[in-house]
Amino acid sequence: MGIYNFQSRFVPKIVAGEKTHTIRAIRVHPDKPGNTLSLYTGLRHKGAKLLMRVPCTAVQNILITPGGMVRIDGIYLEDDEREALSRRDGFSNFQEMLAFWNGRLPFRGHIIHWRT
């Protein structure tokens, strides 16, 4: 059962069902489809709040490069696909998402998908 913490700015989009996945570093024991994910905000702080428990529906490999290239399970995304990815991840557009990752690229990890 994966436990995931989210910044407060993502909470409204998670609760509304607009944010449907999270991009995270590869874990020693990664989640897999069928696992229950516990989505929190404020973990490790007084007043931590459980947002919801949801089923994991898919886990994909992701690579994000400093130049803005994105590869999911070995397939490079086109511009419109990167925009859709960024919106599902809680950003307004791909440039906002790249700014979030600034200084941490290249990034290799997982996209953990859920269904509410």
| Helix-residue proportion | 10-25%
The top-level CATH class is: Mainly Beta
Gross geometry: globular
Number of strands: 7
Largest sheet: 7 strands, mixed
**Count of runs of 4 or more consecutive helical residues:** 3
Average pLDDT level: 96
Q: Low-confidence spans: pLDDT under 50, at least 5 residues?
A: none
Distance between the termini: 16 Å
Q: How many domains, as an integer? A: 1
Radius of gyration: 14 Å
Q: What structural class do the secondary elements suggest?
A: alpha+beta
Characterization of this structure:
By secondary structure, this protein is α+β, with helices and mostly antiparallel strands. It has one domain (2-114): Archaeosine Trna-guanine Transglycosylase, Chain: A, domain 4, CATH 2.30.130. It contains three helices and seven strands. A hairpin with a 2-residue loop joins strand 5 (70-72) and strand 6. The longest helix is centred in the last third of the chain and has 10 residues, at 79-88.
Short description:
The protein has 116 residues and is an alpha+beta fold. It is built from 3 helices and 7 strands, in the order βαβββββααβ.
Key words describing this protein structure:
116 residues; alpha+beta; Archaeosine Trna-guanine Transglycosylase, Chain: A, domain 4; seven-stranded mixed β-sheet
